[in-house]
Write a structure and sequence with these properties.
With 236 residues, the chain is mainly alpha-helical. It has a single domain, classed as Arc Repressor Mutant, subunit A (Orthogonal Bundle), CATH 1.10.10.10. 48% of the residues lie in helices and 8% in strands. The chain is built from nine helices and six strands; from the N terminus they run H-E-H-H-E-E-H-H-E-H-H-E-E-H-H. The strands form two sheets. Strands 1-3-2 form a three-stranded antiparallel sheet. A three-stranded antiparallel sheet has the order 4-6-5. A hairpin with a 6-residue loop joins strand 2 and strand 3. Helix 1 packs across helix 3, helix 1 packs across helix 5 and helix 6 packs parallel to helix 9. The relative contact order is 0.14. About 4% of the residues have low confidence.
């Protein structure tokens, strides 16, 4: 059984306070980097702050200070959503969402992407998560989302919500509930006016291509630092 097929632990319930925007960003960033830059994971505080403040693949874009991220990490540790690893020169952090919340890795991938980019359709989620996990098709994405929405009250209740269809769109978007109930009216007003689903998919593919190019450059930069005997970026 591969890590992506690991079933959710049955003994954990997610019945705790809603996360703040900063805590959701920290948690989502750790989940993203675990998948996209495994060689640099778990993350140092410096790398975590940089990831939280990325201008790409983030909605909304934030500018968090080290102090805010440290506070969020400590709060998430108390909720067992983040773990601190020992060893090395600096502290490193990793997420623990699958055990703490009790969901399979595929569901965790969808929750992480929703925390980082806000409400998205199943099609957008499938495209955006390609570097995290390759879902077979949109139907499989929908199936995991429906499971998260229909989560039993004794397990903590729903973790996502399917939003009403926004004017001018063909597909409904999904939003996570880790930060508490969502303002459906505000989200509907924030939907892309006049944009079709095809427009969104085309733009998403372009962004994914740019992200892949940036990731390749980051890997090349790390290799260059190794060859020159310099410290790795984000490990100072």
């Amino acid at each position: 059984m591969t890590p992506d097929q690991t079933p959710a632990p049955r003994s954990h319930n997610f019945q705790q306070r809603p996360l703040s925007t900063t805590e959701a960003r920290v948690l989502g960033t750790l989940m993203e980097k675990a998948r996209t830059v495994p060689d640099s994971y778990p993350l140092t505080l410096n790398s975590l702050v940089i990831g939280c403040n990325q201008k790409s693949s983030r909605d909304p874009v934030l500018q968090l200070t080290d102090a805010l991220v440290v506070e969020a990490v400590e709060n998430l540790r108390q909720l067992n959503l983040v773990l601190e690893t020992s060893g090395g020169r600096v502290a490193r952090y990793e997420h623990n969402i699958m055990r703490a919340v009790g969901v399979p890795s595929q569901s965790a991938v969808l929750l992480g992407m929703l925390m980082l980019r806000g409400p998205q359709t199943a099609g957008e989620l499938r495209l955006n998560t390609e570097r995290w996990y390759k879902f077979l098709d949109i139907a499989s994405v929908d199936a995991f989302l429906e499971e998260l929405q229909d989560r039993a009250p004794e397990k903590g209740g729903a973790l996502v919500l399917k939003l009403p269809r926004a004017p001018g769109t063909r597909e409904q978007r999904w939003a996570h509930l880790l930060c508490g109930p969502v303002d459906i009216a505000a989200l509907s007003n924030a939907a892309m006016p006049g944009a079709t689903e095809d427009d969104v998919i085309t733009l998403t593919r372009r962004v994914s291509t740019l992200e892949d190019a940036v990731a390749l450059l980051q890997d090349q930069l790390q290799n260059l630092h190794k060859e020159l005997g310099l410290s790795q970026p984000g490990q100072d």
